[in-house]
From TrEMBL, chains A, B:
UniProt cross-references to InterPro entries, sorted A to Z: S04_transporter_CS, SLC26A/SulP_dom, SLC26A/SulP_fam, STAS_dom, STAS_dom_sf
GO molecular function: secondary active sulfate transmembrane transporter activity
One Pfam family from the record: Sulfate_transp
Residue intervals of the STAS domain: 529-652
Gene3D superfamilies: STAS domain
Region of interest (Disordered), residue spans: 1-25
Subcellular location: Membrane
Record's GO cellular component terms: membrane
Major subcellular location class: membrane
CDD domains referenced in this protein's UniProt entry, alphabetically: STAS_SulP_like_sulfate_transporter
Coiled coil (UniProt feature): none
Transmembrane segments: 181-199, 211-229, 259-276, 288-308, 380-403, 415-437, 443-461, 473-493
UniProt-recorded name of the protein: STAS domain-containing protein
Amino acid sequence: MPGAVSDGGENHNGSDIGGSRVPSHCDMDSTSYRVSFPPKKSLFKEFSGAVKDLFFAGDDPLRQYKEQPSWSKRAWLSLKHLFPVLEWGRHYTLGKFKGDFIAGLTIASLCIPQDIGYSKLAHLPPEIGLYGSFVPPLIYPLLGTSRDLAMGPMAVVSLLLGSLLQNEIDPKKNPLDYKRLAFTATFFAGITQAALGFFRLGFIIEYLSHAAIIGFMGGAAIIIALQQLKGFLGIKDFTNNTDIISVMKSIFKSAHHGWNWQTILIAASFLGFLLATRHIGKKKKKLFWMSATAPLISVIVSTFFVYITRADKHGVAVVKNIEKGINPPSASLIYFSGPFMLKGFKIGVEAGLIALTEAIAVGRTFAGMKDYKLDGNKEMMALGTMNVVGSLTSCYVTTGGFARSAVNSMAGCKTAASNIVMSTVVLLTLLFLTPLFKYTPNAILSSIIISAVLGLIDYEAAYHIWKVDKLDFLVCLGAFLGVVFSSVEYGLLLRVAISIAKILLQATRPKTALLGNLPRTTIYRNIEQYPYVTTVPGMVIVQVDSAIYFTSSNYVKERILRWLEEEEERQRQQNFPQIEFLIVELSSVADIDTSGIHALEELFRALEKRKIQLILANPGPRVIQKLQSAKFIELIGEDKISLTVGDAVKKFAPKAVDDV
Amino acid sequence: MPGAVSDGGENHNGSDIGGSRVPSHCDMDSTSYRVSFPPKKSLFKEFSGAVKDLFFAGDDPLRQYKEQPSWSKRAWLSLKHLFPVLEWGRHYTLGKFKGDFIAGLTIASLCIPQDIGYSKLAHLPPEIGLYGSFVPPLIYPLLGTSRDLAMGPMAVVSLLLGSLLQNEIDPKKNPLDYKRLAFTATFFAGITQAALGFFRLGFIIEYLSHAAIIGFMGGAAIIIALQQLKGFLGIKDFTNNTDIISVMKSIFKSAHHGWNWQTILIAASFLGFLLATRHIGKKKKKLFWMSATAPLISVIVSTFFVYITRADKHGVAVVKNIEKGINPPSASLIYFSGPFMLKGFKIGVEAGLIALTEAIAVGRTFAGMKDYKLDGNKEMMALGTMNVVGSLTSCYVTTGGFARSAVNSMAGCKTAASNIVMSTVVLLTLLFLTPLFKYTPNAILSSIIISAVLGLIDYEAAYHIWKVDKLDFLVCLGAFLGVVFSSVEYGLLLRVAISIAKILLQATRPKTALLGNLPRTTIYRNIEQYPYVTTVPGMVIVQVDSAIYFTSSNYVKERILRWLEEEEERQRQQNFPQIEFLIVELSSVADIDTSGIHALEELFRALEKRKIQLILANPGPRVIQKLQSAKFIELIGEDKISLTVGDAVKKFAPKAVDDV
């Protein structure tokens, strides 16, 4: 290993440039280096590099093809690329199946009561909820890359879909048209998701910040829980709006005669049971199966109880009828033209994006925990295909929700095959067991949903955000309040708007700082962070902390001039010599545009009038190239471009002193 | 001067922390420093700091009050703050007046024909154009801080206003309502401008990038020049649209019978004269007065010529009648209620913003050239007040245009008083000279406008942008094509949209780079820019080039992992030891949010599984504070936070070698 790390500080000749070494403790000759211009790329190369970075961020799907000369092998690679199941299916073992089988049974017991409840949120018949846990979970494992996501209807998406759809069609008066629009929206949700994946536009969902998602989910959970009060309290007349004020009014108006004590008794006792098992499951990870199976147990016990006591005759609302049989085809029900197609498209895009955000966020979390790679673009195509197929088989928008996937993961799933096990159980239920739900009280479904969505309120995360970043907390709060006090769509809009505003704001006011010298080193650091750094007399050293673009160029120029004025006054009071040099540390300036260069030129002219020389330290590759093309380096002189602040000080500082 | 710069390298004791010195050439003890936590600010202080930075970027208007205890002096300061004229008026001298007087006469001779022409662009009677060069230039000098801006109607704003207004009301069928809507729009344009200044929201106009302005202005100039072909060719039937395709169609349709050769002859010969003087003025700065007075000379000569030959009887269109007398009050004409108020408001906001952008950009250019300070927020209030007063005195939106201000500056204006001189000349014209314009051919006005707007096409700047920054050029081209092929409003929208998209894109994909060691130093630099840097075996050093926010957090994590994989393979090929350390250089990471910290945690976990240690070098004040609040430092261990990359390598690299 020639020229490798030497633990001492000997043999420092200049010949080891090709090799590699740890720098010695005494470095004398950094001034022998000059700022380097990176090799100039052709326009095409530069452009294609940027495009590749945007669309193929984490991976390059074509890379493996290049290394593979044979055509048959390339075809096999392509197939594997399209159907990840071909990869993991080959290594599938009985041991893995055991894990998947148990996990599949567990999520099936959870999903059946949830699906019936969620379909109510979407104002759709209960069997449509169950359909969504039959077909889509069969499609996903073929295409998806996550091992933990469990597919099916999800609370927030159901609520959003229900609230958007009922703006267009009344689900009570026009149930068929409503259903048709729901399938249309599902179809376009799938198309949207698949298209985003296909065109590798996955980065779009990254515009939703973590904080905004926490706030939005918390708000949605409260809204959903409030909606459940209808079933929980046995209220018949309930508002169609989702905001907290309309719902509370609706509840208080019905307080005197609209509440049903039998219903409340059943709902409250089972909610207590569910929350207790949930608490136990959280405390002792081994007992998590209690919380996973508690919903099904509640359904069985309460159904039996209602059947025995005939409580449905005392005002306890029951599910009544769930249609028997598997998903009927629904391709003919989708609007492929006319105004409803457009409406369905709009609703589908919104619901599809939300479903996508949830699934990708959840998928990433578990992939991170188990350390495997989730391919965002493939996930989108998988979810999209799943929803398109779902829309043709009477399902509404499905996705990989957090609660279900967490149970799946904790129950020990090994691959996406647990979805297939769940799907099989749901198939059997649809074929043989639906009559058993006849006496299931609606109240129990409300209790199950309430206990499920309470897990979406992540107040610990909100507190964490508050402690770490106040601005982020504002974003979180804005999204939360938007959902709770207005509507789900408004909350969504607000969440996107706040996120974008935050970026724009931060692009407008980059940070600048004054630097000082760490005594006995050539290191220069922010004087606010390191109060014991020392000033170099006759010099002002300013650091700019982000790219200089048109949004910030004018601000940066003016802020630097203000630092200069402040520092001039401070140094005058200390009887330091006249300021003659302004060093701008550009390490952190990743890029600059023509407005930025323009601002630097203005800065240079303003300094020239005051007889102060402008020195730039450590410009990066893009910056130095643009400064050269713009002839800015000619303007200020090449000797004013310095490799480090330390070099610049070493080179120019003595002059400042000689002049005193 | 204790502890000041020592030119040698002696007396390095630890006691000079309070003083200041140039670092010695041999620095051995940077490892004795640790990354410092900045003093924690209270929530209020942090928030008010951010607000202050956003709204009071370059100045703090309250600063001087704090230093001024007496009430009368504070009142005087406030007055001076509101009326900058009180400041510069006190030092006004006869010498300055001489300059202002000559400049005022020069711009008056330029403005009279221009105003008549511009009012045609806005589909308003010619006297309204002249009104705009009488009242507004009297208001501006009282409030404005620019010494060079010359006020009055401006080509692009006139075109925009005309095209927006005629979408609402037909100026031929309903001239009175049209005029009323124009004054309403002017009123709200003024209110918008003043409000932006009052609430210190001036940073909003910074979202329009230099490149977008160049493109937009070039496109607008072409559109305006094309519009002038109506007068230039003597066409009677002309399209109302502004896009190039409609205009060209209109011209070719009328080619056979609609063109008037006498008109073309007059127009072409005077355009030749104007362009020739413009060329001379550009070549020899001393002869600029030729180009400044050429328009008025053209008007006089051509008017006399038409009067003698009675060419108006041969189809040469003339101005005919300009109403005599000064601005009539127009407060009663403004719509303060009803649907036209809303429309006027919308149009006013758009036109007001464009007028503002132009004036501030022009004002800044000249302030930079003469090195005085332009206060953006005061400018906005001045322009706003001027337009509100203008709307009450029969003016339409006025601003400080580039052409007029350049002539003003070159003619030697010293203060804004040249505006008052110009205004006086326009007053005399309105009172006594309007009948003289009776025989002025429209064609001459077209020639004057064409020669004026040609100066707005800055192809040199466009070429410069192309050379320096390709992405910026795309923005420029987009704005240009939007205006030329669609409409002015669409071009504006496109210009804002492209600008914002550019920021968002760059916030999504920050740059990362692999660093290597400059041999014989402790400096680490980008291996792409400095190809001769050397690798440290067993270590990967990555630098992130911008703040890590939710838009980029996931990308940054995945990109770092990809660097790691690539580098692992490369080092394996070179038989270097297994990689055990990943150093992330955070100098350039100005800020991080909760999503960013989340991504770092995921990175840490992924590295943990591969038995690689994560080291962070030089986190800035905001980053270190947030990492601490989020307990990330506890997670990775405080010894993993290093002051510089060099320190980290020195501390950890030998281990990597010992393990081989």
